[in-house]
Amino acid sequence: MVTENRRTGEKGQRTPRSLDAYQEKGGVKGTTYCSCGVVYRNKRWYREESLSGQHEGHELVCPACRRIADRNPAGIVSMSGEFFATHESEIHNLINNTAQDAVTKNPLGRIMDICAEKDGVTITTTDVKLAQKIGREVFKSHGGQLQFIWSHAESPVRVTWSR
Hints:
alpha+beta; 5-stranded mixed sheet; 163 residues; 26% strand; disordered N terminus
């Protein structure tokens, strides 16, 4: 009996573990490093500032650097409102602190860009979870309205906060 897989729509195929086009298919053998300072070892990316130019293994561009080069964010955070305008520097500090804390757990989760707009700011991230975390931290600190917009396709999550 052949069943159709809901995620891929293919008959008789297993559901892939990740549909992210930026993740290496099948993994990478041995130790690999990226010029941004992350090292891939044992199926995981690590931040290693202590190496300072000395790397063993071969060089590979990490998924976060590829997303930044392609200008293809995994998360988009929009913030607006009168409260944001009056507390902008405080909220920017909270965003930067949240991003610095998140990079210790996941070195591939980075802020790509922060664009000021006429009534707020738009932040793009290389990781879906970082975008969610930024939205939740601002909401926990300042209240307001928080909304997550997901798509079934491999498009970014959109996080909207206003107050």
